[in-house]
Design goal:
By secondary structure, the protein is α+β, with helices and mostly antiparallel strands. The chain has one domain: L-amino peptidase D-ALA esterase/amidase. 21% of the residues lie in helices and 25% in strands. The strands form 5 sheets. Strands 5-4-13-12-11-10 form a 6-stranded mixed sheet, sandwiched between helices. The protein is globular and about 65 Å long. The two termini are 32 Å apart.
Length: 391
Amino acid sequence: MTTVRLAIGLVAFAATLALPVAAQRSAPTRARDLGIPFEGATGPHNAITDVPGVEVGYTTLISGGGTWKRGEGPVRTGVTVVLPKGKTDQSYNAGYFIFNGDGEMTGLPYIHDYGRQGGPIGITNTNSVGAVRDAIGQWQNAQFGEGTATDFSFGLPVVAETWDGFLNDINGDHVKKQHVFDAINSATGGPIAEGSVGGGTGMMAYWLKAGIGTSSRTLTIGSRTYTVGVLVQANLGRLDDLVIAGVPVGKELADLEPIEPRQEDGSIIIVVGTDAPLSGAQLNLVAKRAALGMGRTGTIGGSGSGDLFLAFSTAPSTYDSTMQTITSTALSKRGLDPVFRATVEATEEAIVNSMVAAQDMEGVNGNRVFAIPHERLRAALQKFNRLRRGT
């Protein structure tokens, strides 16, 4: 088979870049810019930050090139943080779903039993979970701690991971606590960066460059309008399985052989946020629906893949310290379907956005991962009459 590759814009910097989100905000190409048709109405930024109060921050670490040397590089990694309630100590209802357990997401036992969580959600590479967890706990303690021996402000942080060892010196412990602090402190709402940023810096999906992607949907239930937002760290799948907007894009790009063919052993972390009032049990159901959005992109969910999904609601709860109660409302069973649909649609688009926004990257020992070629993607969609009119 003939290999056709464009090695333009490969990322291989000699100097270390440690960029907080403020330095990364830009307007990269997104899936809709290419005319890819998606169902549903988006929020103003088509991002998880369309959910009121949600903030996202990154620190991106890129340094070195050439031959791998443990502890020195090349480095292609970072950390992403999602703050469901911003930089506050307010807790929120939460749920989760483990589609395939070859991965890690800390903090799940508490969510499993109590349907609640608090503080930032971290996403990084496999071997940096501990450092990120400790840093989030220390940040919370510094911000909200009581300074006593029985202080619980450290909490039980949620931190998830995917593996970036094809491009990154993953055993080099490059993600430090200060990188996490920087990501949290610089987190904001509004438009957010996608592709090779934060924890997604060294990730690939369907053997093509990917990383962080996001999308949102607005929905009306009764007389109220709500938002569902999704953020993914995509590192999953095989090229020949890739489907975009119902088109077998991977088969149309079959000549784009990966530099090193891989099995279906990647992973994906999916975070779903909404301001719709949902209980922890209902959020478990929402997290499950993320699997359907993932499936729309073609993956079979391989046995070596860590596919872990978290869902949260920012709807307020009322605390009564005298009665020791928490009071909140929740949608009826009939009100859940619009949330389910929004979750599926936004998850699918977020994964595609993670790929469309990414750029070619070179990492350890010259390993290269190439971004999906936009014009060939458009040509594949045109062949199946799936381009949006006017693009």
